[in-house]
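Annotated sample (chain length 357).
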Amino acid sequence: MANRKLTAALTNAFGPSGYEEDVVQVIKEYTKDFQVEVDPMHNVYARFKEEQKGKPVIMLDAHTDEVGFMVQAIRGNGLIDFLNLGGWVTTNIPAHQVVIKNSKGQYIKGLTTSKPPHFMTPAERNKTLQQTDISIDVGATSRDEVINLFGIQPGDPIMPDVTCEFNEINGVFMSKAFDNRIGCQCIIETMESVKAEQLDVNIVGAFAAQEEVGCRGAKVTAQVVKPDFAIVFEGSPSDDFFTDQYTAQCRLKHGVQIRVIDGGMISHAGFLRYAKKIADQHNIPYQIGVRRSGSTDGSAIHTSHKAVPTLVLGIPTRYAHTHYCYLAEEDLDATIKLATEIVKSLNSETIREITGL
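Output written by the structure step:
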């Protein structure tokens, strides 16, 4: 069973794109048994303390950032204009609580708000909501109060204010940032699961920054690690709440998603076959994802170095890129189990099976 304290620590951490420092500290706290390095971009690399040179390198990837916002300007009346960091649907933004991290490192709570219906004209009521129609209110009455009392300045990052909860009744987590702190948890728990094994590969856990704004961290980590293989963990958006069981590509409580294609990558066919074979051998529930759009760090990793066979394992996440998400513990467990068994099974023979070389 996955470590629920780790789930909470990772998802509760402040970490919009470009501001992942708090997430890095959580990762470091839970990877003390490993050799850990952090680069200037806040990418984190975790390795076993004893590696054997010459072995193939498998990179376990997940991104540390979450979708969030940034202060753009402060109006005279104290309301705050902001920018989106990552992909938001505008109608999901208003009427939620957020946290602004000011330049002193203090966390200031506020609300995303828009004009009340009492003051709207008929034309405004029927207008499509724009992001610029929404502002953040920290309860101030002037620009001076926002700046001098709360210490908020343009450029300060913002995240949804949500605390992780676990429902014992049905085994489902509710939190923000499952995309992709849950992938970070998969890296840590997979490495913990195999650290006592005699492996035929070297593992590098690569926690990448800034995925939500263009897979920027993974472009760096792939250059540093130079992997022979990669497993990308992703809090994968589920579609089971608006599609039927035959057309859904990602469903809660139906196991790990093995992604075949998305907008950024066609997965390595040999690695796909091998992952399904290992899942079947160990009775690990899985589902196949054939995505029309979206992408992961795999888009940057698989074309790096000398071409990297890459597998994307998704943990179904309802309402990704909103303030509140649901995720089933059993799907998390299945993902960690599949990654663990794949890593344990890799040797010269199985690598030839995957690559065909």
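Annotation: The chain has a mean pLDDT of 96.
Annotation: The radius of gyration is 21 Å.
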